[in-house]
Amino acid sequence: MMEIENKTVHTPREKGKKISTQPAGRRLIKKKTLGWEGICRTAADTVKPWAGRFLLFPALILYLELVLHFYMGMEMRYAPVYFAFSLAAGCLFSALILVLPPRAGDVTIRVAAGLVTWLYGVELVAKSILQTYYPLSILGTASGNRLTDYADVIAEQMAVMVPVLVLLLLPFVLLLIFFGRIIGDLHPNRRLAGLALAAAAAFHLLGVGIVHLPWQGDLTPGALYQMDSAIDDQVEQLGLWTMLRLDVQHMIIPPKSNLSNDFSAIEGLGSSDDGGGTGGADSAGSTAPAEPEEPAEEEPVVDTSPNVMDVDLAALAESTSSDSVAWLANYFNSVAPTNKNEYTGMFEGYNVIQVVMEGFSGYAIDPELTPTLYKLAHEGFVFNNYYTALHFTSTSNGECQTLLGLYPKNGSPITMKRTGELGTNVYFSLAQQLGRLGYQVYGYHNNQNMYGRYASHTNLGYTWKQYVPGRNDDPDTLTCEENSSGTDRLWPQRDKYMVEMSVDNYINSDAPFHVYYLTVSGHTRYGWNRVANQYKDLVSELPYSETTQAYVAAAAIEVDRALEYLIQRLDEAGKLENTLIIATGDHIPYSDVDVIEELAGKEFGTSEALSAINESSIDFDVYKNTLIMWSASMEEPVEVDKVCCQVDILPTVSNLLGLEYDSRMLAGSDILSDSEGLVVFSSRCWKTDRGFYNRFTQTFTPAEDVAMTAEEQAQYVDAMKQLVGYKLDSTAHIVENDFYDIVFGEAG
Predict the structure, then answer these.
(1) How many whole angstroms separate alpha carbon 168 and alpha carbon 598?
(2) Residue 510: predicted pLDDT
């Protein structure tokens, strides 16, 4: 057809045909809408300008999750779960940016993509350095901790992680370079935003459906989706993004408690009459006297009554309106108490000095290099199967176990910090028990106010003194060494200096005293710092790497010299014979497990698993440590083979001091009693005197001298798993409901 002078002339082929008067473009669209193929092409032409905005965030979050999971060596069988939740989160982002005007959309896309990428990078670095992911609810704690002290550690770890960090950054860098090509049309498209919102809902529902499939294992995606703890497992099974989302959700709406009220399986479990008792220290064999040939003099009768208090827990459960308080009362009422024994009251009225040593491992003790530690570890109570299992938030979790006799919550809020925030009645803390008896009670830490320690430790009952910048002359603070300008303290502080500056506060007291020291010289990073340099000549010939040499110097020799000085001053004051010294590590040097391997002369697993404390792939003996309970008044050592850990320290010391306490209400138990020993690891694997349970393989390996039928083994494992769950989960209920105050408030 040709147009000449506004007249239409038909060519021979066009004669007899109906001619459309619509524009060519509209005729094309009409033809394309004919048939399914045409509809699909039209949809593609419509979506194409906005495809980048629609697909960017679903692809980005899914990519970051995959990099994280592959790098950390996580199980891939849970991929369908975090695939669905990642796509749901990404589509939600897409719905937001698809309704924004061009300029706002441009900025939002770049900033949001950068923040999401940064978040994954930060969490990965945190896990690699601190052995835990950080939920958003504890970022305030992280920022409050003096991270500049560890800047070199962070920089060193990031240098090692350059390849994976580059992988994480790659999509964001490509986005910035090819922004226009990737994003396309930036004009609002509300219809497509609605489609993205519908997709987000669909993927979320799909994820929830997958979560509730009949997964196998002790901790399943369905269980984790309802929890505000077990963060590592949440990241592995649900994805990092979902863990963070659930954390925010639970800050607003706390998760419902799904704890069982059937305690029949655990009644009597671990007591001496259920076959699990070890007979306390005497059963270890090394110090038990041989059977006399002639009748010996009649020995005094030993009180073996249970260590319980006059508390009607059943009545409390009936009278309370709180489900959590009722559950705790019923749970404690079903727990088998530990019994008094020949060591009850052995150190009654003694002064008590307790030391928690930063990053300490008993593998570093040496008779020549650390003679004081060696003496205390071998001439008092000798615990051959003692573990410092790593739980959430490193040092703070070690203190929680040691000072409260409870396992810390494996998630937010941080247990020790929370007790200070709430002013929780920690009735059984040694500071409160001894304070009620008229003891002078002091606590010292040669570092700043990390993990809200000033509030929590004052609440424990201590007159608490720690370093405060610029306040070295303040009597309410701990005097520490400062740099020449006097504006900041030197790092790390020397533990011996802390003892020197504090000992005169209590050493000449007419009243008995209880003192708690939290050291810092053994803090990572291990190298030739101002503490380690003092002893470089002593360790330079050791057959170890320089890192291990420096570790021995800072984490072992320095604290050894601090204890040596302390014992000297106690002796000079005539109070050594009447003082009980307790010392243990807060945790192993988890960022440098190769240091422990050098000292122990054995491997504990792959380097990747150890750097992340992936308990599915490690030898749990990496947590084996030394617990010191020593007094100069002891005539001979007492060896104990029972399995034990940090939560057992408080009840054991309470019994040794002859204090009135209720053994049912603590997660730990008196090591010297005839009850069964137990260590619970953060992964919910556990070890008792009867064997080891691996949660990852769901297998139980009996101890060498234990014979159990398959049926007995199955019943025992089921009951122990229930008890372990109760021990781990009860802490948050105790703290949040101020349970001890409900029971003992008037008495306290």
Answers:
(1) 33
(2) 94
Tens-place pLDDT, residues 230-260? 888 999 999 999 999 999 998 888 887 777 8
Contact (CB, 8 A) for 210 and 78: no
Q: Look at residues 669, 581, 658, 579 and name the one whose alpha carbon lies nearest to residue 344.
A: 658
Torsion of CA 328, 331, 333, 336, to 10 degrees: -130
DSSP track, 537-579: HHHTTSSS-HHHHHHIIIIIIHHHHHHHHHHHHHHHTT-STTE
For 539, half-sphere exposure in the C-beta direction (CA atoms, 13 angstrom radius) is 29
User: Distance between CA atoms of 414 and 141, rounded to whole angstroms?
Assistant: 9
Handedness of CA 407, 453, 457, 352 (dihedral sign): positive
In terms of C-beta density within 10 A (0-12 exposed, 13-18 middle, 19 or more buried), how is residue 745 classed?
exposed
Q: What is the DSSP string of 29-49?
A: HHHHTSSHHHHHHHHHHHHGG
Bridge partners, 629 (sequence order): 381, 582
- Tell me the one-letter amino acid at 2: M
Query: Distance between CA 284 and CA 677 in Å, rounded?
Result: 13
pLDDT tens by residue, 524-570? 889 999 999 999 999 999 999 999 999 999 999 999 999 999 999 99
The string of DSSP codes covering 511-533 is S-EEEEEE--TTPSSPSS-TTGG
b (16+ CB within 10 A) / e for 219-252? bbbbbbbebbbbbbbbbbbbbbbbbbbbbeebee
Confidence of residue 19 (pLDDT cuts 50, 70, 90): very low
Q: Ranked by mean pLDDT, which of 179-183, 263-267, 492-496 comes out on top?
A: 492-496
602, two tokens: 């054995």
Arithmetic mean of pLDDT, 712-739: 95
pTM for the whole structure: 0.86
Tokens 């209590």 correspond to what residue? 506
What confidence category does residue 1 fall into, taking pLDDT thresholds of 50, 70 and 90? very low
Give the separation between CA 35 and CA 123, rounded to whole angstroms.
Answer: 50
